[in-house]
Hints:
The structure is a homodimer.
Chain A: H1 6-11, E1 14-25, H2 28-39, H3 41-61, E2 65-70, E3 73-78, H4 87-111, E4 119-135, E5 138-144, H5 146-156, E6 163-166, H6 167-173, E7 177-185, E8 194-202, E9 208-209, H7 212-215
Parallel strand pairs in A: 4-6
Antiparallel strand pairs in A: 1-3, 1-4, 2-3, 4-5, 6-8, 7-8, 8-9
Helix pairs in contact in A: 2-3, 3-4
Amino acid sequence: NLLETPEGLEMGGELRTITILTSDLRGFTSLSERLSAQEGPQKVVSILNIYLEAMAETITSYQGTIDEFMGDGILVLFGAPTQREDDPERAVACAVAMQLAMKGVNQQIAELGLPDLEMGIGINTGEVVVGNIGSQKRTKYGVVGSQVNLTYRIESYTIGGQILISQSTLDRVRDITHTNGEQQVSPKGVKEPITIYSVSGIDGNYNLALSQEKETFVVLRETVP
Amino acid sequence: NLLETPEGLEMGGELRTITILTSDLRGFTSLSERLSAQEGPQKVVSILNIYLEAMAETITSYQGTIDEFMGDGILVLFGAPTQREDDPERAVACAVAMQLAMKGVNQQIAELGLPDLEMGIGINTGEVVVGNIGSQKRTKYGVVGSQVNLTYRIESYTIGGQILISQSTLDRVRDITHTNGEQQVSPKGVKEPITIYSVSGIDGNYNLALSQEKETFVVLRETVP
């Protein structure tokens, strides 16, 4: 994929509208410290790697670009380096598939006698600067801009099993995406409150739905101060 | 360095007391969006790379392990993968050297006709799980634990030019480190308020001091609600 846009990459800096997906395991830091004390630090890394392996496989199958693993967090780009018309819908479908893949992850983790993991996902579409960022010895394709920060903020409102998307993403996937809740939130660094939407499934070529069981946990129209 | 502890790495998970340094450019996201609009996205990547190149050079010379570049943010480990007795003091000395290196960075950036960058640095010492984290195709040596999160929180209290360190780091470098201020803060995820200290210089083999000009900007004993 990197070879598809060699000039763009060498130029080192381009403005792009992309769809950004961030995920993390809700409550994992405190879980990891309990596990480390009770079962040993190897167990922490084992379950993290079971989770990241499954997520990487799912993300790759939806042609997402994994930009970063940070502990239990993942930053994924749809639309960079390669831009496709269906970037936003692939991102939403990928998120649903990631949540569904947690079932298999938790089965593997249960076999180790360890408790379930719960993941939250935030998705947002907006303009960012993409390019090769870093030092001579350590360059990577990365993104900069407030839309990246906003995606992390949106993700921070999730509970386990939830997918929250911004208005700008919803506008691009509305025809095929099912939502089952919305919230007004005021993320740090954003002037006006914004509305974010909880995704329950996606039709089109994807035909994926979160289980009913999960949906009942979705918080509806709660205003975060 | 990776070869020094091959067993530890293969085991994939070890509890370690390390000193963690995080830095970022204060206000860079909004600056980057103004720059992108006025001067083009290439300029954003250019100044980011000038900054990261200089910082990578400084960090390497203090034997810090660069774990991550995230946009304008840097995560550095002292004590992993290789542990040394002087990890905490090398981290503090590295931070002072990084702030001093910003002068050269800003000279290069001024030559491009662009405004000064200001960096904040947080440092903390604590127990974390280290190991090879990721998927089969994409593994990296990384860290997990609340002490990593706490370091980011400490950094978030900095203003440009400032270095803030936790009590646990200060306790290990007290004999040679000069501070010129302290704050009580209540970071998210921490039960009791903690005290953080503003570093103005370090003696010992390092003999580095921030300029007086910077020190006058340091906020003393401000309580963050």
